[in-house]
């Protein structure tokens, strides 16, 4: 670990919840920023057999935020929330899904997630998820895993998209 990679002095002393939220926000920013400087075509470019595209990853992350910080906390159904019924469907891009619109929806979902979790304690149970009651701590850990995985996907896809641009 280089000096640049080490947490700032006092970072280890922050309360656990603040550490979770800090790491979550880093992953959220990574997904949001994977679209920086890309054209609409580049953001939609399909490079793998699945529906995974850079724009689709950010749209899916919006879905995930809504599932874990709205559905799981409020108990409202996905239909009530106006989101896809399944994770696979959440990658589907519509004609009006532009970089600006998808990013704005993602920023709004992240802000709503922070607000929904704010009154809860780290060990408070959220009861609206299909798995049954889960502590907020578990939701944070699950979200960290999910977002980190998708940030890795985004890094590779972005590298491929930009390399393809240079090869032309």
CATH architecture: Up-down Bundle
Placed side by side, the strands forming the largest sheet appear as: 1-2
Largest sheet: 2 strands, antiparallel
Q: Give the CATH H-level superfamily.
A: dinb family like domain
Q: What does the average pLDDT come to?
A: 92
Helical percentage: 55-70%
Indicate how many domains the architecture comprises.
1
Give the ordered list of helices and strands: HHHHHEEH
Low-confidence region ranges: none
> Separation of termini?
37 Å
Coarse shape: globular
The CATH topology comes to Four Helix Bundle (Hemerythrin (Met), subunit A)
**How many H/I helices?**
6
How many beta-strand elements? 2
CATH level 1 class label: Mainly Alpha
Per DSSP, what share of the residues sits in E-state strands of 2 or more residues? Answer: under 5%
Rg over C-alpha atoms, rounded to the nearest angstrom: 17 Å
Class by helix and strand content?
A: mainly alpha
């Amino acid at each position: 670990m280089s000096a640049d990679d080490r947490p700032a002095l006092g970072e280890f002393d922050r309360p656990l919840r603040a550490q979770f939220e800090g790491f979550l926000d880093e992953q959220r920013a990574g997904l949001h920023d994977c679209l920086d400087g890309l054209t609409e075509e580049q953001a939609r470019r399909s490079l793998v057999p699945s529906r995974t595209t850079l724009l689709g990853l950010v749209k899916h992350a919006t879905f995930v935020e809504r599932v874990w910080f709205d559905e799981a906390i409020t108990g409202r159904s996905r239909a009530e929330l106006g989101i896809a019924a399944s994770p696979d469907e959440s990658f589907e891009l519509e004609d009006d899904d532009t970089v600006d619109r998808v990013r704005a929806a993602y920023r709004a979902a992240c802000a709503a997630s922070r607000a929904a979790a704010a009154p809860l304690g780290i060990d408070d149970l959220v009861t609206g998820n299909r798995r049954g009651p889960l502590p907020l701590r578990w939701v944070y850990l699950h979200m960290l895993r999910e977002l980190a995985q998708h940030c890795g996907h985004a890094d590779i896809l972005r590298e491929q998209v930009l390399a393809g641009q240079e090869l032309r």
